[in-house]
Amino acid sequence: MNRSTPGRAWVATLAGLLLVGPVLAGCAGSTGADDLRPAPPHTAPRQPGNTHTTPPKACDPVASYAPTTTPGASVAAIRDSGALVVAVSADTYLMGARNPVTGDIEGFDIDMASYVAQAIFGERGHLRLRVITSAERVSVLENHEVDLVARAFTMNCARWEQVAFSAEYYHAGQKVLVSTDSPATSLATLTAGSRVCAPAGTTTLSQLQSDHPRLTPVPAATHTGCLALFQQGEVDAVTGDDTILAGLAAQDPYAHVVGAAVSDEPYGLGVAADRQDLVQFVNAVLEQVKADGRWTASYERWLSVLGPAPAPPQAVYGR
């Protein structure tokens, strides 16, 4: 297949448009001046959880703090600041991507962040989005640069040592995207030495390096960067969560996603480790969103390409 065929021109154009815009993007009524002003650091004290139970002996990556609707010091600080600041992707189609027509960042992850902001302020219009790469997800929380990270953030035990997470709000799995004329049907059936792209700082890249040493990993800053390398013939495949690859395949008629999931990728909203009260409040919001149908409606809007809406992930508490 010739990757310079004219049919790819619109794909390259869309990929470029998704990257257009300022590094800080506001939505839901914020102004341009607000978007460009650095987010103030939040240093709210850690609140003792009144529903805290004995921690599990072994780490359970999906176990979070029991929910509470009583706002703590962290939520009060966010209200005083006037906006919930959330780090997101602007180029992960279906999860968090800039609409090339409206300029808004939208997707499943953005919906989850919007629900939390609306619960804190009681109305829309108090959400500020900061665009980051996958590799920056931990550092922006450790430095208190944002309140939440909503960027296809897989919960694992190593990350729990650095940051905290909400309860699981989506369950993804690692797959692989190849050209439609490729004989590969999974990561395992790629030819030895095949160049496979994944973003730096992701569980996807580490999984590729540890489980498939016969393949050649090629890191990029973002999945859109991987897609560009794929379209230019610089890599043979792109690996990532099925949610993300579905978005890439939707942008490229010469690509498709193959194989069964080779990993479990439970997504949680990232929170600074010293803001347990915020985690508990977020968990209460997610419980309501799953119960009242908003989770299913968001899935059907953004992720129906993956199949019929499943039941929302069941929360696990006890941390």
Structural features, described:
- The structure is a single chain.
- The chain is of the alpha/beta class and about 325 residues long.
- The protein contains eleven helices and 18 strands.
- The chain has a five-stranded mixed beta sheet, sandwiched between helices. It has a four-stranded mixed beta sheet with strand order 1-7-3-8. A three-stranded antiparallel beta sheet has the order 4-5-6.
- A hairpin with a 6-residue loop joins strand 5 and strand 6 (about 105).
- Helix 4 packs across helix 10.
- The longest helix is centred in the last third of the chain and has 16 residues, at about 275-290.
- The chain is globular and about 55 Å long.
- The N and C termini lie far apart (about 50 Å).
- Residues about 1-55 have low confidence and may be disordered.
> Secondary-structure element order, as H and E?
HEHEHEEEEHEHEHEEEEHEHEHEEEHHE
Total strand count, please?
18
Structural class: alpha/beta
Oligomeric state: single chain
CA-atom Rg in angstroms: 19 Å
Q: Could you report the average pLDDT, rounded to the nearest whole number?
A: 85
Helix content: 25-40%
**Poorly predicted runs:** 1-56
Largest sheet: 5 strands, mixed
Q: What is this structure, in a nutshell?
A:
The protein has 11 helices and 18 strands. It is α/β, with parallel strands linked by helices and 319 residues long.
Output the keywords.
disordered N terminus, 32% helix, 5-stranded mixed sheet, 18 strands, 319 residues, 11 helices, single chain, alpha/beta, 4-stranded mixed sheet
